[in-house]
């Protein structure tokens, strides 16, 4: 094999690695608990015949930042959800569920939301097609789920 052929092969491998790596990085942007919350939310939606929510990195950044702020200030609240979320994504409609608990358990978080009429309404809205989940802390866990329409 000539030097030129080896260079081309190496270049091809590097190019493929560059194309594949970002998709793996974005898929791994959620930690295990955040990913479990999204799975549990999608399972709940499926039981009502609703489409799955697609994970959005912009919404995940918005949710993570909000959870970190709630933890830092030791206050739980929504604030101006629309304005805050739209700094990260373009969308017509937004919704948000938040939770605070000792420990961080995906099933408990989703069950809390399912047992609260306003939270359940957001979780089960057909208008929402994208989601981002962020949490801060493990012992004292603050969780934010930001929802957005398709556009």
Account of the protein in words:
With 151 residues, this protein is of the alpha+beta class. 52% of the residues lie in helices and 18% in strands. It has a four-stranded mixed sheet. A hairpin with a 3-residue loop joins β3 and β4 (140-148). The termini are far apart. Residues 9-29 have low confidence and may be disordered. Residues 39-141 form the SCP domain. This is CAP domain-containing protein.
Distance between the termini: 51 Å
Q: Which parts are unreliable, with pLDDT below 50 for 5 consecutive residues or more?
A: 9-29
Helix content: 40-55%
Please state the overall shape, judged from the principal axes of the Cα atoms.
globular
Order of helices and strands: HHEHHEHHEE
Overall pLDDT metric: 84
Count of distinct strands: 4
The number of distinct helices, counting runs of at least 4 residues, comes to 6
Q: Structural class given helices, strands, pairing?
A: alpha+beta
Radius of gyration: 19 Å
The spatial strand order of the largest sheet comes to 1-3-4-2
Largest sheet: 4 strands, mixed
What percent strand?
Answer: 15-25%
Quick structural summary:
The protein is of the alpha+beta class and 151 residues long.
